[in-house]
Specification:
Length: about 230
């Protein structure tokens, strides 16, 4: 793919996912554009075993953009890194098509594994700001990772994950995160706990009322018993 075609394609991706962009030329101002362009070149060098020069280019890009992508990572089409500062993508990471990453995302390892050490992301995935995905497991297609989550295990397709450690809180038959880039994901577990608290408070109020009624009636009954005697 030529540089003009690449710019046009990246401009389409960014316009689709970032409402802040107003003109195609602005794509040249995005850190994501330059980081991914450098990665594509560095990855080719890495595949040809020019490891030093591949790492030199990737580190140069990291210093300029704040986005560190190891040249050994395998990345599909349509990757968009919004804002981007603090993003880290490890060497054995595999990323499918149409994936969106926000600032502060880490696709890293746990330090305990060898060989394949980093996660595999499927297609149409959104990883929200500050999320960490650590380990050599897969994130299924059409999934969303909530902001600040720490994901340490497999995620099925069409899932929503939140929390520390990350847990699946929602599954759907079909999800296309790129059509819904809201990073503030609801936590159904928290919502259920809040509902339980409300119900418990209601039961306590009913119990207190019953106690009051019992205490009020008790003397009268005692008096009735004495009169009857």
């Amino acid at each position: 793919m030529g540089i003009i075609s690449y710019i046009r394609k990246e401009a389409e991706v960014i316009k689709e996912r970032d409402p802040a962009i107003k003109s195609p030329a602005e794509v040249l101002l995005y850190s994501s554009f330059w980081a991914i362009l450098s990665y594509r070149t560095a990855h080719k060098w890495y595949q040809n075993k020019h490891y030093f020069w591949a790492r030199w280019l990737s580190q140069r890009a990291a210093k300029k953009t704040g986005i560190e992508i190891h040249p050994g990572a395998q990345i599909g089409e349509g990757l968009f890194i919004d804002h981007g500062h603090g993003v880290v993508i490890g060497e054995t990471t595999i990323i499918g098509d149409n994936v969106t990453l926000y600032q502060g995302v880490t696709l890293g390892g746990t330090g305990k594994e060898k060989g394949k050490r980093h996660p595999t992301l499927g297609n149409n995935i959104m990883v929200s700001a500050g999320a960490k995905v650590l380990g050599s497991f897969s994130i299924g297609d059409n999934s969303k990772i909530g902001a600040g989550s720490v994901v340490l295990s497999e995620v099925p397709p069409n899932s929503t994950v939140v929390g520390v450690p990350g847990r699946v809180v929602k599954r759907a038959n079909v999800r296309v995160p790129q059509a819904d880039l809201d990073q503030v994901l609801p936590d159904p577990v928290k919502q259920e706990l809040e509902q339980l608290k409300k119900e418990c408070a209601g039961l306590r109020a009913e119990l207190d009322e019953l106690k009051k009624q019992t205490a009020f009636k008790a003397p009268g009954r005692a008096g009735e018993s004495e009169n009857a005697g």
